[in-house]
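Notebook p. 47: complex prediction with potassium ion.
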Amino acid sequence: MSQSLNLFISTSYSPKLLNQSFSKKLNFNWNPVEQLKTRIKTALTIKASVTDSNSNPSVLTSDNGAGGMLSAMPQDYGAFRGPAVADPSAIEVDAVTETELKENGFRSTRRTKLICTIGPATCGAKQLEALAVGGMNVARINMCHGTREWHQEVIQRVRRLNEDKGYAVAIMMDTEGSEIHMGDLGGASSAKAEDGEVWTFSVRAFDSPLPERTINVSYEGFAEDVEVGDELLVDGGMVRFQVIEKIGPDVKCRCTDPGLLLPRANLTFWRDGSLVRERNAMLPTISSKDWLDIDFGIAEGVDFIAISFVKSAEVIKHLKSYIKARARDGDISVIAKIESIDSLKNLEEIIQASDGAMVARGDLGAQIPLEQVPSEQQRIVQICRQLNRPVIVASQLLESMIEYPTPTRAEVADISEAVRQRADALMLSGESAMGQYPEKALTVLRSVSLRIEKWWREEKRHEATELPGIALSFSDSISEEICNSASKMANNLRGRCSFCLHKDWSHGISSIALST
Ligand SMILES: Nc1ncnc2c1ncn2[C@@H]1O[C@H](COP(=O)(O)OP(=O)(O)OP(=O)(O)O)[C@@H](O)[C@H]1O
Ligand SMILES: CC(=O)C(=O)O
Ligand SMILES: [K+]
Ligand SMILES: [Mg+2]
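Predicted complex, structure tokens below:
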């Protein structure tokens, strides 16, 4: 039985909203149907199949989980998702996706993209290839660390891998930003601070090796801005000190929470339980060193530039026009890293101005109480979905795997939650940059992502999700409500629901068919 409701609704959904560049860079065929799914917000149960010809409108068909070519599970919505294809014989996919397609078919290919920070543990050609095989979609280089030459080598190795072996690994360059951070520990890979030890934090230039228990600080005004009694947090509280004395440019601090100091870790200082933001709050989001790194990124043709400590939409707009004027094909996407109080204040306009956002939980957790980080994560992910921007959840997803080969149960639960929230991508930091088990950590990300996606698809398929409204006009809202109602009806009746679109996507839905 099939019933068609011919609606001929015109909507003004603009394909310009779509992040075509993301899917292109990640080698996923951008397909209007994918975006249609975003637009019509099919309920969780709807699995879509696609037919497309020159004369017919494309049709998304739900079959309540029994089959269909494309899965319209919510993870499809973000632009980091893919692949969305009409004809498997007519597309080119990267080597990893091809294997996944052969193994699992279209319905079960992984939607959650995986980003690995490349560091000393993973910069070699063999290690990079192992990550590509393991499902790395994006290699992230962090300009806080290493030299431009070092990063250039990594970029070239990734490109070679893509060309020679058919992978589609994109490159993301992450800026240093001008927040306060420690120096490079005089070449040591880490240093242990023990409880009660007195360390010197100084803006003086030292010869290498550094004097014992001495840390360089990047910010000139540091010694003037801190006060005796202030609490100094390294890396958002991984190690804590208390300021006990100031001697010219040197600040003596006693360790109150021991831990491992890593090169160039971020520093924040707190007074009477509040983050101190004095002159350092006036530092520009993009420092002069960052601009040189950005020029380097443009010259190397990186795919994404992630901007650290974004405070407002203006800096994103400025960078985007800078890139447009300089990049060969103008095709570098700008990711806003949400990791400061200011970015939370201006969240919507920052995300609107960006091509995507990152929930950078490491530094975010240094600026707001830790217990607030999960709800902020959920809010950021939701806003990104609403504004149709891809969103990355980053930091400490598998922190214990820097040292151990198996994750904690809590880490697995954290990854599951991010996938359940429908984050488009997950990112490894220290786990892949300098950890002992980068490939194993990636395997965990991959298998947990796949499992949660499967759970959505198969076990939760009769559960309709309440998705936020995304219509921009009254006529869009009508289409949206009709689609929502049709999906709901299909769910309740355990039936199928098909949405027909006009060939010209901007004209919206032409008909909806319900069948048992
Ligand atoms: N290119 C590199 N060279 C050496 N070590 C690196 C490199 N990239 C990362 N690392 C190491 O891995 C750790 C985690 O990397 P990551 O890039 O996530 O740093 P982060 O300080 O957490 O990030 P961010 O600076 O963006 O907040 C770093 O503290 C550093 O020890
Ligand atoms: C990724 C990053 O910059 C952070 O978590 O702080
Ligand atoms: K950074
Ligand atoms: Mg950060």
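Notes: The chain is about 35% helix and 20% strand. The mean pLDDT is 80.
Next step: compare against the earlier run before touching the bench.
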